[in-house]
Amino acid sequence: MIGGIVLAAGASRRFGGPTQLAPLGGRPLLDHAVAAQCGVPAIERVVVVLGARAGEVRREVDLHGAEPVVCEGWAEGQAASLRAGLAEMAGAEAVIVTLGDQPGVTPRVIAMVVDCVDAPEPAARAVYHGRPGHPVLLKRELFPRLRELRGDVGALPVLARARVKEVEAGALCDPADVDTPEDLAAAARRMDDGRRPAS
């Protein structure tokens, strides 16, 4: 099984409110990231890791069949969220990880990285004009090291010591985070201008 993990547990302090619920294109921002993962047929099960204001997010966001997982230790940072997602994916051959505040990452790009599951490297990730980003594919052999992570870090310390297949996606989608109201306005402008590629 290939599993999907959407990380969306943060408190959105820079945004001044729950980024997950910020409106973008008539939908909550998190809806875009969840729909993108659920739109990839090769991903058999998707979990959305929630934390801050989890109940409100569950009520207001269409999870498209994905399963909500509440990370009680979300305040620790991204490592706790990743561990919570992995705990739900113990039987997976690999997991694909995306971020709930990156609404421009499309199913097409996610599928390209998922297709690397048969590559010899234990991990794969999208790069944007050479800069590493998400989605990230993590194979089962890395799970023990990922479970040891602590603090506000994602998989980067593990990826730094692993062989990683890179998939250039710079011309295919916009990987920008939405961390501030200004970021949200920029994402809305890109959507209005039609610069977000079709999935």
What can you see in these coordinates?
With 199 residues, the chain is α/β, with parallel strands linked by helices. It has one domain (2-192): Spore Coat Polysaccharide Biosynthesis Protein SpsA, Chain A (Alpha-Beta Complex). Helices cover 28% and strands 24% of the residues. It has seven helices and nine strands.
Distance between the termini: 23 Å
Q: Could you state the oligomeric state of the chains shown?
A: single chain
Low-confidence stretches: 195-199
CATH class: Alpha Beta
Tally of separate helices: 7
Tell me the layout of helices and strands:
Blueprint: E1 2-8, E2 23-24, E3 27-28, H1 29-38, E4 45-50, H2 54-60, E5 67-70, H3 78-87, E6 94-99, H4 107-114, E7 123-128, E8 131-139, H5 143-147, H6 156-159, E9 164-168, H7 181-192
Parallel strand pairs: 1-4, 1-6, 4-5, 7-9
Antiparallel strand pairs: 2-3, 6-8, 7-8
Short structural description:
By secondary structure, the protein is of the alpha/beta class. It contains seven helices and nine strands. Residues 195-199 have low confidence and may be disordered.
Task: Provide key terms for this protein.
199 residues, alpha/beta, Spore Coat Polysaccharide Biosynthesis Protein SpsA, Chain A, 9 strands, globular
